[in-house]
Write a structure and sequence with these properties.
globular, five-stranded parallel β-sheet, 7 helices
């Protein structure tokens, strides 16, 4: 094959591949984030949290998506479950990110109750044809091995049974670094949120392409 025709063929293939990648994100999406203080920018400058950083990343990559951050500091799974119908009706999201459970765990509430609430939220979103991504959490070891393991495994169980992608632990690479936390030792500093986004992005971007 002449060199010119060979290079022309490679160019055409490259263009087709780029077109396919672009088309994966071609339709505008609405992303609803329902979380607690970890997503509501508690104690940090507005625009420094991982949800705002996600919005910036989407804009930088020219991915047409609108982020609605419906997170509330102190929110529990029952609060999210109560708010979910109105949020779905108002925003009609294509993707719902559920980042809840930490406050249930910190209060030592029954894992079964949190699981029931999270399942209900996933079900509501899926009934509206939205895809769901779960964001998992771990409890400190002082809550006891039985409780911490049951709590952590809850997210994987729901993810598997509802076919919802999961970020196992949003504070991976953060939780073991005290310098990345505010004085309360519960809420990450702004410097930790790029790490949180890096934990969330691979699963989220994959889901976005499938939507």
């Amino acid at each position: 094959m002449p060199v010119f025709h060979y290079l022309k063929k490679l160019f055409v293939i490259a263009c087709l591949m780029l077109g396919a990648a672009a088309s994966a994100y071609s339709a505008p999406k609405t992303v609803l984030v329902v979380g607690d203080s970890l997503s509501a920018e508690y104690g940090i400058t507005r625009g420094a949290g991982w949800v705002a950083l996600l919005d910036q990343k989407l804009k930088q990559q020219k991915i047409p998506a609108t982020i609605v951050n419906a997170s509330i500091s102190g929110e529990t799974t029952i609060g999210g479950r109560t708010r979910m119908p109105a949020l779905l009706d108002q925003h009609k999201p294509d993707i719902v990110v559920i980042e809840l459970g930490a406050n249930d765990g910190l209060r030592g509430l029954p894992v079964a109750a949190a699981e029931s609430n999270l399942r209900a939220m996933v079900g509501m979103a899926q009934e509206k044809k939205a895809r769901v991504m779960l964001v998992g959490m771990r409890m400190p070891p002082n809550y006891g091995r039985a409780y911490t393991e049951s709590f952590f495994n809850m997210f994987k169980k729901i993810s598997t049974e509802t076919r919802s992608p999961l970020v196992p632990f949003m504070l991976e690479g953060v939780a073991d670094k005290p310098a990345l936390f505010q004085q309360d030792r519960l809420h990450p500093l702004a410097a930790a949120h790029p790490i949180i986004l890096n934990n969330i992005w691979p699963t989220f971007s994959s889901l976005l392409k499938k939507q």
